[in-house]
């Protein structure tokens, strides 16, 4: 029986685990905490699919075209076709396992439109779609756990992959209880570690999704893709802990963006782009908000309070709880913030990477969203990629013989022990904070050669001190050892942004403000003996 190791228990990791188990494989599902604490539970607005209950005129092909257009034609077209064609089955699967989507008085699903969609095709569960999907998947995981096919292991973190001669044999994990590194061998290793939030500090996402695993795998030879494409959500609310997402659902229900000019309200998106202006793609709205140079507000107070209560209860509660704002009476002060990472581990359409036996799914893999993701497509791709990876793993040969990693493991354990005992003036958490300041300043919504080179200079300095960090026992050993991987990933992202001398999707350069044919290709970055090499995948080698 094949043994599969999955790192990360959000929607993509769970979906992959369930499907592997259904296909008769044994799974270990690893994460620091329960699935209920993964970022997936934060997903509010919904999941896209064209089902038999679609709006008149809509079709799978239209979903494909919207996705490719939204991604500024950098997404893998075959992969996107697979994603959109399977969406209907995914919705039905979710319904079968207990996800209850919102319906109208005739029991028909109510659909909404996110930005960049030609038709309404987003299915939702009130404003807590992620929570409902996670709950349903957790029940399925438990069912397979009872059958002995899935083992959930918590309080464990990824440390490194066990790779020899281009083949992955499992991973070295940090066991937070015993405070030691433990090897876990497997026929396939699946990464499902989500986004790269700690590059920017305060974002709309979870700080558990910090990008370390992707950065570490890059150092170990995995190719990364499209790192420069980082989605800034245009409407977030400042709070002391994080940027709270004001879901696109507010604009989907008719919410209007404006700024004040004296007593006058200026509806700048509608003025410039017509009645659909508030539902333009996220990158464009984020840039327009910055361009106003004013405090911007989102108003939904004019709709019936009952609709707010039934369709936007979480937005209502967030605004009331964190800022004392009653959205049925007053507008919401909003500003853009980092929200989603289109880039990550470069995967083929079967979700394999350039390292045999290593797979990636969900937000940490890059394939469906090109230069910009459409709202509602991420939950869909998390579900779909988990399924596809399981099917590919089934088709791959099982390991005949395990490579011997004894000396590697021993060396890493010594290195880890040395880190616990280290003493230097540089504290890991402090460097993480400095990194976030650098990235927010130099790799923001608008970039230039000048800002990117300043960013790279800063990160190179942080990297030069990362090996001499002062072990900070007030935070987890994970925070300490993850620093170098996170810094490396940040430098790789800046390097990709510097190499792409055009503006496309979420990547906007003031010194190259238009898209050019020359760069109509995904960015691939690889690491070799201390050097980062950027290429543009004009032959679409990562599609097939
Ligand atoms: C506020 C918010 C609202 C959103 N709303 C929507 C929406 O309405 N529709 C939509 O389509 N998308 C939405 N998204 C995006 C979507 O939620 C995510 O892209 C998706 O849930 C990612 O799922 P995932 O399985 O890839 O990762 P996650 O759910 O992020 O799970 C990652 C897992 O990896 C674990 N992990 C991370 N690093 C390590 C490590 N080093 N070692 C071990 N484990 C690790 C984490 O603990 C976690 O278990 C939203 C995102 C946010 C932040």
Mass-distribution shape: globular
The CATH topology annotation of the domain at 419-537 reads as: Methane Monooxygenase Hydroxylase, Chain G, domain 1
Based on DSSP secondary structure assignment, what is the total number of beta strands? Answer: 26
CATH superfamily assignment of the domain at 419-537?
Fumarate reductase/succinate dehydrogenase flavoprotein-like, C-terminal domain
Detailed description of the structure:
The protein is α/β, with parallel strands linked by helices. Among the domains are: 234-338, Succinate dehydrogenase/fumarate reductase flavoprotein, catalytic domain (Flavocytochrome C3, Chain A, domain 1); 419-537, Fumarate reductase/succinate dehydrogenase flavoprotein-like, C-terminal domain (Methane Monooxygenase Hydroxylase, Chain G, domain 1, Up-down Bundle). The strands form seven sheets. Strands 13-12-17-16-14-15 form a six-stranded antiparallel sheet. The protein has a five-stranded parallel sheet with strand order 6-2-1-10-19. A hairpin with a 2-residue loop joins strand 25 and strand 26 (531-537). The longest helix has 20 residues, at 77-96. The two termini are 27 Å apart. The mean pLDDT is 94. Bound molecules: flavin-adenine dinucleotide.
């Amino acid at each position: 029986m094949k043994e599969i190791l999955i790192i990360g228990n959000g929607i993509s990791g769970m979906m992959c685990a369930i499907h592997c188990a259904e296909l008769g494989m044994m799974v270990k599902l690893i994460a620091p905490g329960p699935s209920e604490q993964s970022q997936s539970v934060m997903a509010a607005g919904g999941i896209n699919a064209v089902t038999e209950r679609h709006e008149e005129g809509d079709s799978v092909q239209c979903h494909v075209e919207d996705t490719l257009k939204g991604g500024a034609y950098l997404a893998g077209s075959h992969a996107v076709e697979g994603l959109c064609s399977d969406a209907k089955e995914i919705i039905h699967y979710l319904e079968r396992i207990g996800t209850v989507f919102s319906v109208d008085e005739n029991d028909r699903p109510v659909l909404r439109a996110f930005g960049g969609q030609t038709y309404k095709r987003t299915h939702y569960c009130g404003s807590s779609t992620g929570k409902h999907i996670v709950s349903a998947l957790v029940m399925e995981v438990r069912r397979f756990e009872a059958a002995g096919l899935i083992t959930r292991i918590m309080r464990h973190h990824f440390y490194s992959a066990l790779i020899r001669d281009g083949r992955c044999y499992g991973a070295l994990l940090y066991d937070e209880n015993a405070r030691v590194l433990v090897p876990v061998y497997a026929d396939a290793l699946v990464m499902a570690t989500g986004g790269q939030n700690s590059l920017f500090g305060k974002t709309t996402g979870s700080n558990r999704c910090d990008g370390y695993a992707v950065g570490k795998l890059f150092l170990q030879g995995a190719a990364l893709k499209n790192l420069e494409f980082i989605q800034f959500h245009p409407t977030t609310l400042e709070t002391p802990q994080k940027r709270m997402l004001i879901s696109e659902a507010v604009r989907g229900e008719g919410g209007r963006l404006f700024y004040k000019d004296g007593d006058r309200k200026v509806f700048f998106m509608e003025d410039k782009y017509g009645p659909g202006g508030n539902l333009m793609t996220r990158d464009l709205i984020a840039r327009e908000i910055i361009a106003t140079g004013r405090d911007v507000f989102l108003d939904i107070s004019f709709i019936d309070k009952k609709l707010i209560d039934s369709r936007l209860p979480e937005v209502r509660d967030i605004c009331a709880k964190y800022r004392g704002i009653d959205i049925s009476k007053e507008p919401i002060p909003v500003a853009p913030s980092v929200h989603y990472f289109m880039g990550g581990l470069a995967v083929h359409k079967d979700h394999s990477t350039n390292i045999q036996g290593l797979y990636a799914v969900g937000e940490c893999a890059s394939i469906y969203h090109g230069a910009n993701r459409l709202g509602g497509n991420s939950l869909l791709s998390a579900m779909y990629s988990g399924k596809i990876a399981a099917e590919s793993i089934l088709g791959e040969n099982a390991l005949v013989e395990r490579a011997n990693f004894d000396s590697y493991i021993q060396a890493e354990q010594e290195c880890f022990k040395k880190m616990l005992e280290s003493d230097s003036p540089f504290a890991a958490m402090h460097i993480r904070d400095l990194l976030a300041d650098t990235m927010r300043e130099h790799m923001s919504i608008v970039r230039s050669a000048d800002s990117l080179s300043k960013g790279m200079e800063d990160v190179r300095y942080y990297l030069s001190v990362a090996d001499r960090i002062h072990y900070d026992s007030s935070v987890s050993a994970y925070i300490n050892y993850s620093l170098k991987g996170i810094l490396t990933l940040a430098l790789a992202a800046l390097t990709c942004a510097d190499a792409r001398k055009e503006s496309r999707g979420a990547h906007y350069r003031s010194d190259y403000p238009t898209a050019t044919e020359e760069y109509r290709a995904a960015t691939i970055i690889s690491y070799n003996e201390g050097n980062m090499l950027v290429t543009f995948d004009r032959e679409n080698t990562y599609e097939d």
